[in-house]
Amino acid sequence: MRGWHGGDREGLDALLPVVYKELRRIAHFQLRKEREDHSLQSADLVNEAYLRLVRMNPPQWESRTHFFAIAAQLIRQILVDYARRHGAWKRGAGQGTLPLEDASQLLRGKDVDVVLLDDALKALAELDPRKAKVVELRFFGGLTFAETAEVLDVSPVTVSRDWSTARAWLHREMNRGS
Fold this sequence. Notes:
mainly alpha, single chain
């Protein structure tokens, strides 16, 4: 990481085999939440994330956890871009309401519309950027409370509170107009 951080592209090539397995885990974790007939595979998601990482200017991460936070952000962008290109349903058109019984179920089910979630996350980021980042790191990156706390430089208790509040807010926002 330090070599790539210093601008050495070969550093990325040396880094990839080390982190590939973890990136694959994150991608697989995220794709399990997608519809069953989703055509994007874990390897495709990891490869696209790798291509985007290569195109980045030398990154400014401080740790392994921070690296995976950036990977989570890239995976979110890739999934949202993919969904938009493939005519994802938005705001109740096609899918109807989210199959969620209450706010505690948000971000656990398979039927979360990533385009709808992305729109809601953007709105949340305008109100509270940290809560939006918590959702991105936990939902798209699969980071634990402790890892998320490290990236955001807050306590795990704060992350837990932010996670609960953000899920409730997103549930309300995503079901508005349903």
